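Ligand-bound model needed. 1-deoxynojirimycin.
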Amino acid sequence: MLAGAVALAGFSVTAPARAASRASDRIEALLARMTIEEKAGQLSCFADMIRPPIGDINPQVNIRNAQTLLAETRAGRIGTLMNGLGTQGALDAQKAAVEGSRLKIPLLFAADVIHGFRTVFPIPLAESGSFDPHLCERTARAAASEASASGLHWTFAPMVDVARDQRWGRVAEGAGEDVYLGQVLAEARVRGFQGKDLKAEDSMLATPKHFAAYGAVTAGLDYNAVELSEATLREVHLPPFQAAFAAGALTTMSAFNDINGVPSTGNKRLMTDILRGEWGFKGVVISDYTADQELVAHGFAADDRDAARLAILAGVDISMQSGLYLRFLPELTASGEVPMAVVDASVRRVLALKEALGLFDNPYRSINAKVEAMRTATPALKQLSREAGGRSIVLLRNEGGILPLPRAGQRLALIGPFAEDRDNVVGPWAFFGDKSLNVDLATGLRAAMTDPASLIVERGCEVETTLAGGFERAVAAAQAADVVLLAIGESQDMTGEAKSRTDIRIPPVQQRLAEAIAATGKPVVVLLRHGRAIALEGVVRDARAILATWFLGSEMGNAVADVLFGAVNPSARLPVSFPLESGQEPFFYNGRTTGRPAPVDPNAQEYKARWRSIRNEALYPFGFGLGYTTFALSDLKLSTPQLAWGDTLHIAARLTNTGAVQGEHVVQLYIRDRVASRTRPARELKGFQRVSLAPGASREVKFELKREHLMFVGEGDRWVVESGLFDVWVANSSVDGLAGSFELLKA
Ligand code: NOJ
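Prediction:
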């Protein structure tokens, strides 16, 4: 309702990000001596070919070979090198900059350290299912420690794009479909990467990306256009960035996509007016890979020169890989099309980053082969990878309590293309991972079994094609076993950048394999491999047990064994909804209410928001996950039925472990604004807590709500709070819970 509505712009704006230190005397002195070519150099980043390249992370365009890069560095024409690995190359490059160039400005070394470096942790989507910010902070800290020991200063992570369409391959890299979870984990990951002190040798600059709304690409097609209301942009897609900046992130990356016709990389309103004007961001914007040059293909810039002009004027400080700033900033400033003051402001910001890292005083920081060896793939890193893996697995189904399995006394058949596969355990964004560390399922399971010989392994088929005699051998293995473990799903080549899918089911050949196995009548436990939510069907959906095991990183096999045999009680929850069918996408739990919501009675079908074949609901909803014990929520208490404008609502409920073993539960707080001047989501997550309880034990779980938690973007695209009725749930997932309500009184 509008009465009592108050615009609270101040609440929506996070505190201005910590400044990357104000331009110091050193920076001003350098700037005064720089030629326009040297300035353009500081604003240019190129793929590092000085160190041996590690594969095609990006399209191989505008590639400069090692000799050219070293020569350009000596000429002061490069400020940042990216995605190089190893200390010797870093030493050579840094020497060229610090000893060989006129102004001796050190290079920045950046890389895509997304979820680990040599030791790989679970894909961010999986880890987000832990609902455990502390875990996310620890893995980011560990990744920064290992990567910085290899001479890196800057990671292009975390990806904080809210992803509501599971067809989009990059769902794998982020925190999933929810805004609040995305905010909390964005902060945690920034804190982890950057540590307490950026000058510390094991800290890295973090880059919340991709600014902005990359997750909203139409039809989940990577790089596609984005059509988005201002309200949804500000309520859904921007908050994780604000959270990351409030946590101290000093850089961001401009997204490939447009928003309502304006490509992000040429979008001054986004890159300058909102980012710097509204939020007070003082850091550096780097373009995504050739995103400035792509303004031409977008049809937004006439040619490369125009693209460079548009990008720098929009507020993009560093051009990644296109070389456009090097080529065109000299003439664009000479002609006055780009004021020198604009270039200077960007150079100041880039030099301030180098200063914040301590590079002027310590240019060779963390370039030390001995330190690299000491901090790489240590037992502690591997242990953390295993722990994070176990804490990311979601138990979706466990009919008859078939899991956990006994370690002895049963013959197990491990069947499927991922049974003994080490090439698909780390996920699509772990190019630097040391493959020799990868633990496949068979190895992990055998290590945990009393009699490893009682495990039979059969591949059955390839990921998308048959294997001669594969089905026959797999069926025979199932017949000889007491329990079948079916390792099926997506390969890591089916998720990630440019890997959008139109159909998010298990590939047909694997579904047929599952049918052949199910026909044996043996109990089947599905070990699902995936980088997104999957639309499960038929015998896979109806298996005795299903574990969502994602891509868990280097220690995948051990982490899965820990959960299968009960050393770890699974406690992760889904960060994305599993729809009933692919065609429901984009499907997310917090969609707005319609005028014709689906009725509770599934048979009442007429003229309601449902599909012809199914209701529009999830097979497994956001926030859902089982464990080896059971929990009950009771005794919901709200401190008042009427919340005064400036007060705090205290919400409490009792959680009891009603099962037989110790376990952890994620208690979730949701709200719904019953009546507002804009239609609101059916539910919104506003808090969660992880609680560990011994069998029979119980604890009161408490939450707080204030009016700023009830805000939305209303009239005139401004943040408002409106008085009136709100529903509140203390819940186990986004579709259940103890329900209460309260009224927010007028101001
Ligand atoms: C393109 C990706 O969109 C981005 O996330 C990544 O950081 C860059 N390539 C650099 O590798």
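The first helix runs from residue 9 to 12.
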